[in-house]
Amino acid sequence: MELLNTGIAGLDRMLNGGIPRGHIVTTLGSFGTGKTTLALQFTYAGLSNGDNCIYMSLEEDEEELIKTAEMFGWGFKQYIESGKLILIKLSAMNIKSTIERIEKELPDLFRTFGAERLVVDPNGTTLRK
Ligand SMILES: Nc1ncnc2c1ncn2[C@@H]1O[C@H](COP(=O)(O)OP(=O)(O)OP(=O)(O)O)[C@@H](O)[C@H]1O
Ligand SMILES: [Mg+2]
What we know:
The longest helix has 19 residues, at 95-113. By secondary structure, the protein is an alpha/beta fold. It contains five helices and five strands. The strands form two sheets. A three-stranded parallel sheet has the order 4-3-5. Strands 1-2 form a two-stranded antiparallel ribbon. It has helices spanning 9-14, 35-49, 62-71, 77-81, 95-113, and strands spanning 3-4, 19-20, 53-57, 85-89, 117-121. Bound molecules: adenosine-5'-triphosphate and magnesium ion.
């Protein structure tokens, strides 16, 4: 079973190496407990391994995500430019059409882009305050 490292050494040790490829993992925690940071670090670890990554956020647009990642020294811009990373801002205003869009467009995008890591981050209210 192939394991994907999270980029967090302590967590990878606890997981015996990382997250099994193909698995869906949900991160639960109260606000400000580091869910978004974990998702960004997981994405950066993938990019560093050469994986194509898609990061979808309901709160932060592309520029905001780039800035947040930069605060930790994770340079996302170069990977967007080289076509290895796609950042997508989803609309929380009309959640029904957003979910319909995900169902309709994501499978194709996933295949054509060849994404190896996908992150869906539904919330991000505490960053950059
Ligand atoms: N492992 C960590 N150690 C110390 N600080 C951290 C750690 N992970 C995240 N933080 C800091 O904690 C704050 C909140 O993190 P983050 O936004 O990732 O939480 P969240 O769970 O996504 O919050 P929300 O539920 O509001 O979306 C940020 O300022 C972040 O820099
Ligand atoms: Mg968050």
